[in-house]
Specification:
7-stranded mixed sheet; alpha/beta; single chain
């Protein structure tokens, strides 16, 4: 979740400094727990056949359902939610980017998505946000893949007004859509992102993009 989010935040942070992020992470079965994909598959088949679920075998209903991650011991936050906040703060340095995350178990096998609301120190025009995302490394802005600056080779066919995690499986990029500015709060941006959580290139894209964003800070 941090890797995909960081790829999107990096060009915006470099241009206008991201102060705060609120994100809802829709986590697939592939990243939840050992056997998560098999468990979701078994539940889906059972429900489609009208057999119901064995509560002793499957105490948590995952198929065709949405469930938030449970909190950790002694805290109202899930461990993954705390981890994303810590990792983003470490990646972007001082002053830290504040991140509030909510993780939700989504009934999909592979592919992660996030609904993101972020605030920047310096307000950006919508066309500037589009330009920064379109030119960002490892990013594809939905509907812009036909443009020469939009994408890596081989994924132009994935351009879509609102791609979901299943639609972009096999792509190394983080795909962004539904970019909007809040007219009541200058510097506030809402967007949707999704990526293939099984593609290792996501992490390398995050590192490469952050190297650009943090170049001046390291110097």
């Amino acid at each position: 979740a941090t890797a995909g989010l960081a790829v999107v935040l990096a060009p915006l942070h470099e241009a206008a400094r991201v102060r705060r992020v609120v994100t809802t992470v829709l986590a697939p079965a592939s990243v939840r727990e050992t056997g998560g994909v098999e468990r979701l598959s078994r539940q889906s088949v059972s429900l489609m056949q009208g057999l119901g679920l064995d509560e002793d075998e499957d105490p948590e209903h995952l198929a065709f359902n949405l469930r938030p991650f449970g909190p950790g011991p002694g805290t109202p936050w899930a461990a993954d939610e705390l981890l994303v906040a810590r990792e983003c703060a470490a990646l972007f340095g001082e002053p830290p980017v504040e991140v509030m995350a909510t993780f939700v178990r989504a009934p999909v096998f592979y592919g992660m998505a996030q609904c993101v609301f972020l605030e920047t120190e310096d307000p950006l025009a919508l066309e500037d946000v589009h330009r920064l995302l379109q030119q960002g490394r490892g990013l594809v802005l939905a509907g812009a893949a036909a443009d020469d600056t939009a994408a890596e080779p081989g994924i132009a066919e994935l351009a879509d007004p609102s791609p979901g995690p299943v639609d972009i499986l096999g792509s190394d990029a983080v795909h962004v859509a539904r970019v909007r500015l809040d007219p009541a709060r200058p510097g506030s941006i809402a967007l949707w992102l999704c990526f293939d959580d099984q593609r290792k290139a996501v992490a390398s894209n995050a590192v490469a993009t952050l190297e650009v964003a943090l170049r001046d800070a390291r110097a």
